[in-house]
Fold:
Amino acid sequence: MSRPPARRARPRKVRGASAVGQRFEVEIGPVAHGGHCVARVQVTAETEEVGQPSRDQTRVVFVRHALPGERVVVEITEGTAGDRFWRADAVEVLTASPDRVDAPCRFAGPGLCGGCDFQHVALDAQRRLKGDVVREQLRRLAGLEVTLTVEAVPGDTDGLGWRTRQRYVSLPGGARGMRKHRSHDVVAVDECLLAAPTGPSYDVRGRSFDVAGGGFWQVHPGAPEALVDAVLSALEPKPGESALDLYAGVGLFSGFLLDAVGPDGRVAAVEGDPDASRLSVANCPGLQATAGDVAAVLANGRLGQVWDSADLVVLDPPRAGAKRAVVEEVVRRAPRAVAYVACDPAALARDVAIFAEHGYRLTGLRAFDLFPMTNHVECVALLESEVR
Structure:
């Protein structure tokens, strides 16, 4: 699938005196979605009535560079007196978690490069934290209790050297840098330990894929095969079945679905990027590919009446998720199974809840650590109709 570049944080509306730079000693609570942990601080605020004494308030603070259970000193990096929550960095560790390690990169830490969230966390503990986030999002947004273990991608041993595509900010004199967290400020960086020594390989399970320059492809070298294996294992496609591949990119899943359903089956792909859609046809002979907005293509009949039903669906949407319009078009086709590949657990949980409204329940879930040292995690969810 094609994914747009990450959007920079929009300036927040000022709501009173700035708290930036203030320091508090706090105990760190649970991990939260987004690469930080939750803490609470007691702050003093003036009441609205003139002449009344000040009162204490509890303020939620999202803290980077900390771990659950630690006692730390935090320094506020974003927030004003009128905000519901603040952001902060842990600048001094008073009581360390047993999962804390020295960051392997000298550019990781408070006020430095914002590319990594968890370099201060042991790799197995990073995966436990990511699993906690997935479970919390499904519990809160979909009302589900799930059990899962975030899996390492085969070949990944230390969480470094995996990013096959990397973008830097050009600096004067030929130097390069990376931006601070939620900032336009740049930190000069002479190396990134996440960067892979070679570029991406577009060969998966003996099949080669053409990808346009700058087009989307998973940045972890082990990701495409891990995801293909997870999707095929979940769906168990059978000869003669029909399959829709939505947000199909250059056809990573389509090619293997075509192999599985055989000459008596059929596969259609829908992708928003015209270049990627065109390449998917070359990559996957026999594929019916349509370029366009997924929700619009499904709703306006461009696929033809033959696709008013489908046995299988693969969803691999961008970070915002598939959303209601797409989910409802999918369930209208009454597939026996849907494999949902998600790079954001909150969007996944929201869409799982929409599927549940239409009689599709979550029957399988796997999570993969495709982005070590960051807060990101990839999930493959299996949704099956309760009416079969």
